[in-house]
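[STRUCTURE TOKENS]
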Amino acid sequence: MVRQHVNPLSRFFQQPHPLPPLQELFPRPERPLHLDIGCARGRFLLAMAPLHPERLHLGLEIRRSLVALAEADRERLELDNLRLLFANANVSLPPWLATLPTGQLELVTIQFPDPWFKARHHKRRMVQPELLQALATALDGRGELLLQSDVPMVMEHMLEGVAASGAFEPADGGTGLVENPLPVRTERERHVLQQGLPVYRRLFRRGRTWQGLHNPSGPPVSAP
């Protein structure tokens, strides 16, 4: 599978793009929320939404053309508990998360983000400190953060960010997950497994002792 990159640090993608409130997106906005960051073509969420009608499912994707295709499928399937939006998560998501009612965000998935292999491009990777802090603030002690990648250095980068945030603790025993805990696999995950290659998975919850955005340290997180 070929990844279609866009530079999230370009001037266009750094422009503020406010996300609509849940009340404008869903007919029953009070339901628990699953947030998928980097949803690509949206097929993962298109399958998840009917399986979990008790939840709202919101996907964010930086490639506008993929969002348009995914939204067309959502409308065709008449899924009123799913929306897919164009956004640069690191720019648009933190202020939006701050508006959510406490405890509504139940699950965050970040799956197979663009690797940006060159060292000078690592700052373009999705999982950045401000985003992690915003996610931790929105999640309560029951909410979960699932990370997946088939690229060891990308998983290591995400885990380093999680550890540096001081906001999360392992919910997987600290050793990672052999199997996907969700009932649906992404296209990328299926492709990687068909090639007989490993997928690295980690599951976290917000730390019980985390005190908020100014907590400078946290528990160590083991790499894959």
In short: Residues 108 and 145 are 5 Å apart (CA to CA). The helical segments are 22-25, 43-51, 64-77, 89-97, 129-138, 152-165, 187-194. Strands lie at 33-37, 56-61, 82-86, 105-111, 144-149, 168-170, 200-206. The chain is about 30% helix and 15% strand.
